[in-house]
Specification:
The complex is a heterotrimer. By secondary structure, chain A is mainly alpha-helical. Helices cover 70% and strands 3% of the residues of chain A. Chain A has a two-stranded antiparallel sheet. Helices cover 77% and strands 0% of the residues of chain C. Chain C has three helices and no strands. The longest helix of chain C has 31 residues. Classes of the chains: A mainly alpha, B mainly alpha, C mainly alpha.
Chain lengths: 637, 172, 100
């Protein structure tokens, strides 16, 4: 059983190396997609097997670990390489490999004509391997290796079309912003090392309550830094700026990395260390506030974006805010639940968007689309399913997960009504912008020239993943249906790991739950209605001509000018400092030294050359002179 | 008293000859001056109880080698040195200065020699007179200095061959 | 008896004159002559030391030096003859091909 963990990790690695052999082989390059997909499929099957064997075991036994080798022995500390799989990581591996498999298959057709297709699949496999490493690691440092590796793959894949300057800039931005988060993570790691003396998750969880006083400054700081690391990876305010720009990468990449997996690594980090975080309630409140803020902030921007992928990117930011809100409220199982359902419908939405872009020959501006439903009905249907799911319409997946979060918000102790209200507002905006997108793209008048763009449905390889994901978007939430006695199947599955914390629905007031369900459903429908009115131009809500003379509109459209702010505060000073150093040091000192050395050698050579002028007399005199010097030396020694 | 006079006379002869070698423009005259110098040196050797060396100096140096020089001069028809532009400016002045420098160094090195404490050899003048200078040299050559002696033979042999090869006219 | 320093002084004079001659003169033959002069100065020094140290080594060394000088003069003059054949001139300032 423990060996299976290695298999899960091994297959993507195998696919990676197999694809390396295919680099530059011309026609055979199209095989790379199949190789990569098979690798992920195998990984998925193994994960499935592990999952089912977990199901058949009692909660205490749902654990498998394997120890590989001692990695860094320093004095008393021995950092090991080992892997562990428990219900949380099992769910994560299923998501990574399952959704990943869908994305791989989709990419086979999507990237068919791209010259760098082998490189693409190598990166994808590398990413899968790194993400699996991240979730299967049994200690912080190994996880950090996976953490950094997914950041690297993100950079590689965002800047995949490296001839586009905007893509390379976006890749750099992603990596650098991630770096800031990683720096905080590192500080947290150092802190952990000094306090706990080990990086092992199990050991830390066991000894945390002994070593820390609840809600003391130390543990709060530690958890804060861990959260900042998570915020960098999961794009929470103010480290969110890289995610919208990351849409420069190919759409399947956005689906996999920036919707389903990498951005959820932050959530995973928090859930993994629930014991630590539960000792730091202050930080939890901060996390909840930041999550809520990001949720509302991103949703408001999404209302006025005109690029399909940007809308979805901000939507991802908003949903991540929901997940962090859930974590901040202590409802870790709920956060994981929403993570799972979000993976389904967000990947579906992104892949659907990719299908639309493919159908429109690369057009991404929704103002130039419209009425596509008749042209690409299958894509349209799948996209509709995804939109219903994300808006939280019963009985699709998003309804249950979002409702669980809202319920936790309402029944939690701290500022309950504020969070619930913010959550409701977020749900309203979510369905608004999602359906604005749907109506603008698939319904309404055609804003493009039929003769110029030949709108065609995507090939079956691309439709198949869409339908699979649509299926899961529908049924995926049913594992979270609250059972009358409290709790749900999903939470029960995770209960072995999250035993000490507040499970969603552990104390249930059924009536309250039903009332809240109806409220959230009504809000979602209201959002749909508003979007419909806007689309049919009866009410101009989200256009530039309304919203108070367009001022608010331009603020939203420019993403609250955050990027410009960063540019002013950080980038310009850095650039001028760099320029200063360049002029001062590089040119004057370093270049002068290097060039000067060359000059010195040259002039020395020129001078010494005159010694060999061919005149015998000179040679004779030199000999004599040398002899005299030797005599003097010998005498005066 | 007499030995001092002899020494100074011989020294003067030698010095005048040397100066003439350096100063005279005609190479023939230089050769003759050098012969005179060698004769003076031979006399000095005699005063130093080195009879064999003195005679060998006259036979080998003053006559054989100098005759070689004369032959070559006549062979290549050497004239007086023409006055041309000097490649190195102030060549004469620099030469004299350098020479004086060398002289200074030598003087500094060689004065204040107190060698009376280092007399270790056994060959006092009386002993040399008893055995005979030439016999002594012969004995030493064939015993203590056998190897250099033989090497000298090889060297001369090589010199002969080299001179013949170098001096040959190209027949083609 | 004439002290050692006198002989050494004379030897130095001879050597110095030889050095001056090597630097100043432009004809090859005369330069070789001046080299011989320098060697004679050394010879004198050797013999005087030998006399004053009661050793025969000085005279023997001079013997060898003379043999070497003979060989060297022969070869040197052969080279001079060859140079003259090639260049019709034995001016040392003309012979400057041994350079960079």
């Amino acid at each position: 059983m423990s060996k299976l963990i290695l298999l899960i990790l091994f297959f993507p690695l195998l696919g990676l190396f197999a694809n390396l052999l295919l680099l530059g082989k011309g026609k055979k390059e199209s095989l790379s997609g199949w190789i990569a997909s098979t690798a992920i499929l195998l990984s998925f099957l193994v994960s499935l097997f592990v999952f089912f064997s977990f199901l058949s075991q009692s909660p205490q036994d749902r654990l498998a670990s394997i120890f590989l080798f001692d990695w860094i022995p320093i004095g008393n500390l021995i950092i090991k390489v080992g892997f562990v799989i428990d219900p949380i990581s099992s769910i994560m591996t299923l998501i990574i490999t399952g959704v990943g498999f869908m994305v791989h298959i989709y990419s086979i057709a999507y990237m068919r004509e791209d010259l760098g297709i082998v490189r693409y699949f190598i990166y994808l496999n590398l990413f899968s391997f790194s993400m699996l490493l991240l979730v299967l690691a049994d200690n912080f440092l190994l996880m950090f290796v996976g953490w950094e590796a997914v950041g690297l793959c993100s950079y590689l894949l965002i800047g995949f079309w490296y001839e586009k300057p905007s893509a390379t800039e976006a890749g750099k931005k992603a990596f650098i912003v991630n770096r800031v988060g990683d720096f905080c993570f590192l500080i947290a790691l150092f802190y952990i090392l000094t306090v706990f003396g080990t990086f092992d998750f199990t050991d830390i969880s066991k000894s945390a309550s002994e070593l820390y006083v609840k809600d003391s400054l130390n543990v709060n700081l530690l958890c804060l830094f861990l959260f900042l690391g998570a915020a960098g990876k999961s794009a929470q305010f103010p480290l969110h700026v890289w995610l919208p720009d990351a849409m420069e990468g190919p759409t399947p990449v956005s689906a996999l990395i920036h919707a389903a997996t990498m951005v959820t690594a932050g959530i995973y980090l928090l859930v993994r260390n629930d014991v630590l975080f539960s000792l730091a309630p202050t930080t939890l409140i901060i996390i909840a506030i930041v999550g809520t803020f990001t949720m509302l902030f991103a949703a408001s921007i999404a209302l006025v974006q005109n690029d399909i992928k940007k809308v979805l990117a901000y939507s991802t930011l908003s949903q991540l805010g929901y997940m962090f809100l859930a974590c901040g409220l202590g409802a870790y199982a709920t956060a994981m639940f929403h993570l799972m359902t979000h993976a389904f419908f967000k990947a579906l939405l992104f892949l659907g968007a990719g299908s639309v872009i493919h159908a429109m020959d690369g057009e991404q501006d929704i103002e130039k689309m419209g009425g596509l439903k008749s042209y690409i009905p299958k894509t349209s249907f799948a996209f509709l399913i995804g939109s219903l799911a994300i808006s939280g319409i019963f009985p699709l997946a998003g309804f249950f997960s979002k409702d669980a979060i809202l319920f936790s918000a309402f029944t939690s102790n701290s500022l309950s009504n504020f969070f619930w209200f913010a959550g409701i507002l977020g749900a309203l905006m979510t369905s608004c912008y999602t359906f604005r997108l749907v109506f603008k793209v698939f319904y309404g008048d055609k804003n493009f020239n039929e003769n110029e763009i030949h709108v065609h449905e995507s090939p079956p390889i691309m439709i198949f993943p869409l339908f699979v994901l649509a299926f899961f978007s529908i049924v995926g939430g049913w594992v979270g249906i609250p059972i009358i006695s409290g709790g749900n199947i999903f939470a029960e599955f995770l209960s072995s790991v999250l035993s000490s914390v507040d499970l969603a629905g552990s104390h249930h007031n059924l009536t309250l739950e039903l009332i809240l369900m109806f409220v959230s459903l009504a809000i979602a429908l209201l959002g749909m209605f508003l979007a419909y009115q806007n689309a049919s131009r009866k009410w101009h809500i989200f256009t530039s001509s309304s919203i108070i003379g367009g001022r608010i509109y331009s603020v939203l459209e420019n993403k609250y000018y955050i990027d410009e702010f960063y540019d002013f505060i950080l980038l310009r000073p850095l650039r001028s400092i760099a320029n200063l150093f360049f002029k001062l040091f590089e040119i004057n000192i370093i270049d002068a030294t290097v060039n000067g050395t060359g000059q010195i050698v040259k002039s020395l050579g020129l001078t010494l050359r005159t010694l060999q002028n061919g005149y015998v007399k000179t040679y004779a005199v030199s000999i004599l002179f040398g002899a005299v010097c030797i005599i003097l030396f010998l005498v005066f020694k | 008293m007499a030995s001092t006079l002899v020494f100074y006379f011989l020294a003067t002869v030698t010095t005048v000859g040397a100066i003439s070698v350096v100063a005279l423009p005609n190479p023939m005259y230089c050769v003759f001056s050098l012969i005179v110098t060698f004769l003076g040196l031979a006399g000095l050797f005699l005063s130093l109880n080195a009879q064999f060396v003195a005679i060998v100096q006259i036979i080998v140096y003053a006559s054989a080698i100098m005759m070689l020089f004369l032959f070559v001069i006549m062979l290549i028809n050497l004239d007086k040195e023409e006055k041309k532009d000097l490649k190195i400016p102030f060549q004469k002045l620099l030469g004299i200065v350098f020479g004086l420098f060398v002289f200074l160094v030598l003087i500094i090195v060689l004065k204040d020699m107190n060698i009376s404490s280092q007399i270790k050899g056994v060959f006092t003048p009386q002993y040399i007179d008893k055995v005979g200078n030439t016999q002594l040299i012969g004995q030493l050559l064939l015993s203590k200095y056998l190897l250099p002696f033989q090497t000298m033979g090889v060297l001369l042999f090589v010199g002969i061959i080299g001179a013949v090869v170098l001096g040959r006219k190209k027949s083609r | 008896m004439v002290p050692l320093e006198n002989y050494l002084f004379l030897s130095s004079i001879l050597f110095t004159l030889g050095v001056i001659g090597v630097i100043v003169r432009r004809s090859v033959i005369v330069v070789i002559l001046c080299i011989e002069l320098m060697m004679s100065g050394a010879n004198l020094a050797f013999v005087s030391y030998g006399y004053f140290l009661n050793s025969m080594d000085g005279q023997l060394i001079v013997f060898f030096v003379m043999a070497v000088a003979a060989a060297e003069a022969a070869i040197g003059l052969a080279i001079v003859v060859m140079i003259y054949r090639n260049r019709e001139s034995t001016d040392l300032d003309e012979v400057n091909l041994l350079k960079f």
